[in-house]
Amino acid sequence: MTKPAIAIHGGAGTILRSSMTPQREQQYTDALRQALHTGYGILSHGGTALDAVEAAIKSLEDCPLFNAGKGSVYNNAGQHEMDAGIMSGKDISAGAVSLIRNVKNPIALARALMDRRGHVFLCGEGAEVFAREVGLAVEPDSYFDTPFRYEQWQEAKKTDSSFLDHNVTVSDKKFGTVGAVAIDSHGDLAAGTSTGGMTNKKYGRIGDSPIIGAGTYANNKTCAISCTGHGELFIRSVVAYDVSCLIEYKGMTLAEACHEVVMKKLVAINGEGGLIAIDHLGNIQMPFNSEGMYRAMKNPDAELIAIYK
Amino acid sequence: MTKPAIAIHGGAGTILRSSMTPQREQQYTDALRQALHTGYGILSHGGTALDAVEAAIKSLEDCPLFNAGKGSVYNNAGQHEMDAGIMSGKDISAGAVSLIRNVKNPIALARALMDRRGHVFLCGEGAEVFAREVGLAVEPDSYFDTPFRYEQWQEAKKTDSSFLDHNVTVSDKKFGTVGAVAIDSHGDLAAGTSTGGMTNKKYGRIGDSPIIGAGTYANNKTCAISCTGHGELFIRSVVAYDVSCLIEYKGMTLAEACHEVVMKKLVAINGEGGLIAIDHLGNIQMPFNSEGMYRAMKNPDAELIAIYK
Description:
2 copies of one chain form a homodimer. Chain A is α+β, with helices and mostly antiparallel strands. Chain A has one domain: Glutamine Phosphoribosylpyrophosphate, subunit 1, domain 1 (4-Layer Sandwich). Helices cover 33% and strands 25% of the residues of chain A. The first copy, chain A, is built from 8 helices and 13 strands. In chain A, a hairpin with a 2-residue loop joins strand 12 and strand 13. In chain A, helix 1 runs antiparallel to helix 2.
């Protein structure tokens, strides 16, 4: 029996203690703890890594604090367009959805697609049709409307900029994404990522979150990875699969591979962000090269919830 | 000065000599030669690998024989939805577009996006808006209507199946994709892939072609790759970047890496298809595990155009 373990993130970026109120910090910490315990509870009762990852991400999607699900930012047209991806390390099966609206839990849609074992990646209205066919919860636009995100959108429109997440100045970046990785008592790995994209985004832009190999990857031979960061650079660097390959082909440990990719290769191209990773031995890494990353981990021996460096 | 070289493909699958007429075979050979010489002509006059790849793929997109651009298959709604991706090995910059309609040359749109150095991946109507903004050629739906593809769509609708490309029975599969990889006299690598997707496809399905790392990848340190095959399995296997990693991290030659991925790893999961690859030394590989692959290569010393095993 493998010792179960889970790690989650709620996005990385310019998250400074100086700009956070104690009350706000407590809200984030509570939300991370709830998602962490939801996922770990499944693992500790013999559930699968896939179920734990999906449940933890659903918890984060249902929380208005994070840019995913209910808390998703507004795009250029005042809509909420979401992406999500999930992968099983057991058989490298995967599901990903992009630019979907009204689906309450995008990660559940990615999971339903994966479970069908047919198409891997669906986009836009077609993916929403599939969501209704499989009976997933659909919410009106108003469900995703939150005052905080609306203000951010109004600010973004004033400067005609497309914010990476929900900050007032572009230099003050946050990469709004949520994700989870887990290993279950059978030794199976899983990874998932979900996002509401960029405030005021145009053009049907897709980031790294739903791209298998870039924002999300899992393989029992190596590790499970969920990323958060500057999506374009994470796509070009095939970040998640790169960590896996450094372990499988170069013999690196999880810690070495994560350091190489996040602190060296990404830093070299100004690829701001981070990732959470868990390997087939249950080791966990949560590296980031930005100011902060909402993150948490739990196994039978330890629990950690953290925001800053 | 590096010796320039280029390789192209027009899709893989159940392509049997027994089901081909001499006239049809000649048409394919002529079309491949034209695209090959268009790309190589740019390289031999000192042009860049990127320009050669784009020009060769445009030539294949403009030919009704291949499932890309003008020859794109019909989706479930009787429309032509196309995907394309391009990547430069010089700075691992990339551009990808998905589910776009009416754009004459999807590869040119991917290139225009890459040249902007902003977003990497655009999808659907937003990508078409971008195409008009940058002044790319837009064609009416009728431009993409070809009798052969229309018949295939009618056949597909009868059986309510979603064909991978343009064959009458699912056991008789073709993976309709076009692609090119090249190295120029400066030693820079580039790769590109373009497709019209699956006949009668629903749900906004995206295959591997526009996914950086899966269907398309280029890096001057290792190689340039363009894939054609069962897209879902190519996405899950991160095929293009896997070849690159086997070279960079495991020290394999291009031939060894291609064999490992196409003839072993993909075969093990019934991942039918193939790829074209060129490394930083100008070596070319064009492996496939299906019955045939429309393919061609040219360098100062050799020229090859082939269809069957």
